[in-house]
Each structure stands twice: as C-alpha cells, then as structure tokens.
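Severity: low
Component: inverse-folding endpoint
Summary: output formatting inconsistent between runs
Steps to reproduce: submit the following structure tokens with default settings.
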C-alpha cells in the first residue's frame, strides 16, 4: 500500500479541478486501487491510501491525475505503508 499526503492552498484552480479529481478517485476505488481518501477537517490538505502492487504502479496512478499538478495542490509526502491491521 502507498500513502499520498497533500497540502492545499487557496488558488481557485484547485477547486475548479476537484470535481474531475473526485470522479477519478471513485473509479480508482471501484477498481480496488484506492482504499480511502479524503480532506482533512480544516481543508488544509488530504490523505489518500492506495492499494497498488508496487512503487511503479503508484507513480503511474499519481501521474495519471492532473489534479496533483494543479496550482494550490502540493504533494507533501508519498510513501509505502505496511499496515498491520486492516
């Protein structure tokens, strides 16, 4: 599994890009590649948990979504995660 942490700014481009991003997340969830995702309560960023086989697949999922390159969206951290309870 892989975790992606985002930080959000106030740029209006981010809000304009969000609906398409959320549709993409729904598709990834239906495919079983996204476990959970959502913004922090204060909307300062978000956390996403992906269930993909390796770092290459994770990088591809991130690269496929233009939201992660949108002004106002910053990738804070991306790392492999080994949960012990599911």
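Observed output (run 2 of 3):
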């Amino acid at each position: 599994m892989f975790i992606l942490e985002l930080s959000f700014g106030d740029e209006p481009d981010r809000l304009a890009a969000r609906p398409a991003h959320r549709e993409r997340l729904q598709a990834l969830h239906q495919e079983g590649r996204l476990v959970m995702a959502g913004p922090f309560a204060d909307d300062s960023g978000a956390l996403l948990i992906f269930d993909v086989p390796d770092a290459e697949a994770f990088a591809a999922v991130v690269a496929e979504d233009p939201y992660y390159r949108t002004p106002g969206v910053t990738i804070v951290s991306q790392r492999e995660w080994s949960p012990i309870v599911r």
